[in-house]
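Q: Predict the bound structure with NAP.
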Amino acid sequence: MTRSLSIGLLGLGNVGSALVRLLEERGAEIERLHGVRLSVVRAAVRDVGRSRGLGLAAGVVVADARAVVRDPAVQVVVELVGGVDPSGTLVADALELGKPVVTANKLLLAERGEALFALAAQKGVALRFEGAVCGGMPIVRLLREALASDSVVSLHGILNGTTNYILTRMTEEAGSAGRRAEAEGRSIRSTEGLALAPALKEAQAKGYAEADPSLDLGGGDAAQKLCLLARLAFGARVRPADILTEGIERLTPADLAAARELNSVVKLLAVARLTRGRLDLRVHPAMIPRQSPLAAVSGPFNAVEIQSDSLGSTLLSGQGAGGTCTATAVVADLIDVGRPGGGALDFVPGRDIPAVPRAEIESSYYLRFTVDDAPGVLAAITASLGRRGISIAALHQRDRQQEGKDPVAVVILTHRAQEGGVQQAVAEIDAFPTTRGRTQLIRFEG
Ligand SMILES: NC(=O)c1ccc[n+]([C@@H]2O[C@H](COP(=O)([O-])OP(=O)(O)OC[C@H]3O[C@@H](n4cnc5c(N)ncnc54)[C@H](OP(=O)(O)O)[C@@H]3O)[C@@H](O)[C@H]2O)c1
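A: Predicted complex:
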């Protein structure tokens, strides 16, 4: 028997418009395969006057989002406005009215998810959000359903397509420059390769980066997604502010070239790991082995690798953003809402899990110091590390031309060490009069 679901759609931007087109193109097939007829009966935007080239009937699109939520003809609300306000109020209003909600809004759920999920449970209606994490990649379903009986130990993710595209391009160019240098029998110069600014321009030209890319580059977008993944994987109540977040802004072609020489690649990695009852949550650039599955995830793609007790390693990769793939995830949620039972998910309140203090994070480190090429400088750096028990696995000096002329790059790889000591040593070395720039620190993972 076919069930009908009348949608009140909030937002006709990238995802909202793609959703309307998807239903136009595939609505009949969805009805045939899944027995759910989905139709947009009301839609809200800011600018009603703007033509959007969508086949919505006259009068469907209005400017009053609250009226859409309250319209008795609307059975399910799809929130694709973004931000925390007024979206949060609109979602809460819909749930209060007993209407299920589907959203792709990671920021709203990362900031207010706990209260909204509790409200949905109290009202016995669905609040679904597959599109909020990694667009069309069904990571929410994987964690909630497929791995429901397993116990997740750790999760490593490439959660942001913009930064992954930029780092992929920088890695490719570092590879070309490295091969050129090898053919010419010299070492690669720090000026070779592709810098972040032109790589970002390229990403913007291809539509992979927004005009204001700060949330992507700074790791904030990945941190919002990691909050939701930590909630699903560990039941942890986390907010973006609880996550150690570092972006890719300070990466240079020299770092990407060094990664190549170390048989690694640099990725903006989101890490969630439960160790002895404490949660280690971070988003930062990381050097990962070139042969690891995540290293092969290139361009604007996303991926999550999950380690769990029974299944071992599970990898999911796919398109993380874009109107159409996110709309695909939203429609999958709508189909669930339209099925008998209404798609409501059990709600177990999140718990506060103690965090691993930053000083106790353990890793091996790539450290690139920019210093005067003068006697005693290297000794002072190694002494500062040594005083904190940080042992050195390798040391290289780069760009050395004529003694004393230009600053040189000193790259040190450490054995495993605690972050607290490493940060203290770096702060001390950065204050040396012979240091010419802020030290670059990249953690190794895997
Ligand atoms: N784009 C992606 O690839 C992607 C991927 C995953 C998740 N998401 C999430 O999906 C959501 C939507 O993203 P998007 O890229 O589609 O955003 P968008 O292109 O900026 O569209 C936002 C829409 O909301 C409407 N709107 C804004 N404020 C409103 C208000 N007060 N009342 C009524 N309508 C209002 C806008 O109206 P006007 O058109 O008149 O301005 C626009 O149609 C966000 O939460 C985003 O994080 C997006």
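A: The two ends are 50 Å apart (CA to CA).
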